[in-house]
Every structure is written in structure tokens, then in C-alpha cells.
């Protein structure tokens, strides 16, 4: 099922894949892994087996059930472009996003090269107006190259999640980037973020015309540190598509069609 989420830049999470593996410093204190380990062994639970990657095909048709438009974070508990997710399964996820076009989907990955290659080979999904394609940018070494990979993909809407922001990113090439999220790490062991790192991203967004969203300062208790940057809350986002929800008859037909997709 989709789940209400406390993530500030979305409304719902949809997880047709669960579990992941760590590949860069941004993964060190992964909130998803912490949640999964907390519920590991709970019989019948979503994370009975821990955080090992697995496909969840029974979740594929969830967006076809919803009766009002939603802003949806795809795979908040995984990474759609993980090497162990079959390409045909990625296409099924994209097919659902294409058909459920009243919803706006946010796909975020650290596997930016696979994202680039997939969208280049499947431009019909890259150019969907209701799908925002994004990459994580936690530092210069691992994060900045991902921006180039994203820019090389023929995506209609591109975004960056600079969270956890682990250092000053310096000059960022924001050409073709529509939205930038910035935020500090939260939870036990959170690494600190300096204000000037976030200010630099904000200033570069203002210069380039990219929307800027300041998510949080973070820390062990993020509720206490808040979301204001220099006395202001930044909630900018790209415009969302506005289409009516499909009628029940059409949604039922699509769910049956999904079941027979190869």
C-alpha cells in the first residue's frame, strides 16, 4: 500500500521495490535501512527479511486504485535503478506511472548511470510530464557526477536531492535542472550541515531559475532545528500536472492489463 509520509517534499510513498545496498557516503545512516532493521523478523511484516532487496509486484497497481491526485515518492525504501532490479520490472513501474497520469511521481536514485541509460533507451518514459526524475547529491566526489548523468537523460523534469548535504558543493552546473532540494542529515549520528553550504545552493538556484526547497537542518532531533533558512521557509516546486483521476471502469481495465504484461 501507499503510505502517508513525513517527508516534506512529497505526500505519499509507493514501494514496488523494497530493500537496497549502500554505495556512497550518503547511505551511511540510511533511514530506510534503519526502519527495515527495526522490523526485521516481524512475521508477515514488510521487512520480515530485513533490508535485502526484493521486488513487490503486488504493489504495482496501487496508483491505479487512488481516487484523488497525489504527489508520490517512488521507492522511498529502495532504489528503482539498483542493479538487481530487472529492466522489465522498471518498465512495469514506468507503465503504471504513464497510465496513472493524474498523479505526479518523484523517482530518486543514486544509480545515475543506469537512470541515464534507461531513459535514453526508453524516451517515452523519460518525457512523461507527470514524472520527475532525480539524483542524490551528497558531496562533490559522488554527487556532482550524477548531475551530469541526469542532464544527459532526455527527462522532462529533473531534480536534485542534496540531502544529506555533507559538504560545500561549490559551483554546480544547474543547466537543465528544474528543482533542487537541500537538507541536513537527521537521526542518531547525524553529520552536521553548515548554513553557507545551503545558502550557496539557494543562491545558485536563484541565478539559474531552478526551484529551491529547503527540507531541514536535521540533527538528532530535527523537529527542534526546523526548516527556516535565514528566517524563511523555501517550499518551491515545479508545477504539477493537473488531470482528472481515471474512472473506475478504466482503472479496473488497466489493473487487468498490468497483470498480463510481459
Structural notes for this entry:
This protein is an alpha/beta fold and 262 residues long. It is built from eight helices and twelve strands. The protein has one domain. Helix content is 30%, strand content 18%. It has an eight-stranded mixed β-sheet with strand order 1-2-5-6-7-8-9-10. A two-stranded antiparallel sheet has the order 3-4. The longest helix is centred in the last third of the chain and has 14 residues, at 195-208. It is globular, with a radius of gyration of 18 Å. The model has no long low-confidence stretch (mean pLDDT 94).
Amount of beta strand: 15-25%
Fraction of helical residues: 25-40%
Number of strands: 12
Overall morphology: globular
Strand order of the largest sheet: 1-2-5-6-7-8-9-10
Radius of gyration: 18 Å
Amino acid at each position: 500500500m501507499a503510505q502517508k509520509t513525513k517527508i516534506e517534499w512529497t505526500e505519499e510513498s509507493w514501494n514496488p521495490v523494497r530493500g537496497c545496498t549502500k554505495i556512497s557516503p550518503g547511505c551511511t545512516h540510511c533511514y530506510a535501512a534503519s526502519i527495515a532493521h527495526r522490523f526485521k523478523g516481524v512475521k508477515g511484516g514488510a521487512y520480515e527479511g530485513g533490508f535485502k532487496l526484493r521486488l513487490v509486484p503486488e504493489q504495482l497497481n496501487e496508483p491505479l486504485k487512488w481516487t484523488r491526485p497525489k504527489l508520490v515518492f517512488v521507492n522511498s525504501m529502495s532504489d528503482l535503478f539498483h542493479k538487481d532490479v530487472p529492466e522489465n520490472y522498471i518498465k512495469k513501474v514506468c507503465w503504471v506511472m504513464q497510465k496513472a497520469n493524474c498523479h505526479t511521481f518523484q523517482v530518486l536514485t543514486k544509480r545515475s548511470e543506469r537512470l541515464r541509460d534507461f531513459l535514453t533507451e526508453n524516451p517515452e518514459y523519460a518525457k512523461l510530464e507527470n514524472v520527475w526524475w532525480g539524483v542524490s547529491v551528497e558531496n562533490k566526489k559522488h554527487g556532482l557526477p550524477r548531475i551530469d548523468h541526469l542532464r544527459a537523460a532526455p527527462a522532462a523534469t529533473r531534480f536534485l536531492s542534496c540531502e544529506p548535504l555533507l559538504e560545500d558543493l561549490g559551483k554546480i552546473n544547474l543547466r537543465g535542472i528544474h528543482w533542487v532540494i537541500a537538507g541536513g542529515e537527521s537521526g542518531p549520528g547525524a553529520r552536521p550541515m553548515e548554513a553557507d553550504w545551503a545558502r550557496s545552493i539557494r543562491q545558485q538556484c536563484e541565478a539559474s531559475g531552478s526551484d529551491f526547497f529547503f527540507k531541514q537542518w536535521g540533527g538528532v532531533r530535527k523537529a527542534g532545528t526546523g526548516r527556516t533558512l535565514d528566517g524563511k521557509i523555501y517550499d518551491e516546486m515545479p508545477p504539477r500536472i493537473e488531470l482528472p483521476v481515471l474512472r473506475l471502469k478504466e482503472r479496473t481495465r488497466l489493473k487487468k492489463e498490468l497483470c498480463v504484461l510481459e
